[in-house]
Amino acid sequence: xxxxxxxLTAGVFLLQPCFFANAQAPNALERAIxxxxxxxxxxxxxxxxxxxxxxxVDKLDSVKIENLQLSVNxxxxxxxxxxxxxxxxxxxxLVEGGFSATAEVRLNIDLATCKATETSIEIVKTxxxxxxxxKGLETEISGALRRSLEKNLAKLCEK
Length: 159
Hints:
signal
């Protein structure tokens, strides 16, 4: 049971595969999120006139966990968290900028099977130069975060 609680707590925050550049997080939980490098996958190649350029808001700027609640009743665990993630372009980017996104995450887990029975991720606020783009892709980003959370939770449960 103790192992599953640790898995649950870590899983809530391992929303995506890793990347944490030079940003400093003030506590262990926020450092763990940073170590997961949640901005890394936010880049793509853009081609124009035969020239291909990689564009991305793929560097972690900051992470802040506003609250985390964890409840266990028998083999059922519920977790909810609210936090803000800010990502920025690399220093070499042709167009510099970034975004911030505040998300609310809710997760129910069956501790006997170590499976998520219900997952909800909602982006409740965006900001920054590219914040409107994030808001426009909210459904896709939330879905990707949900899949990544469930995948990382499954990996943690294998240990």
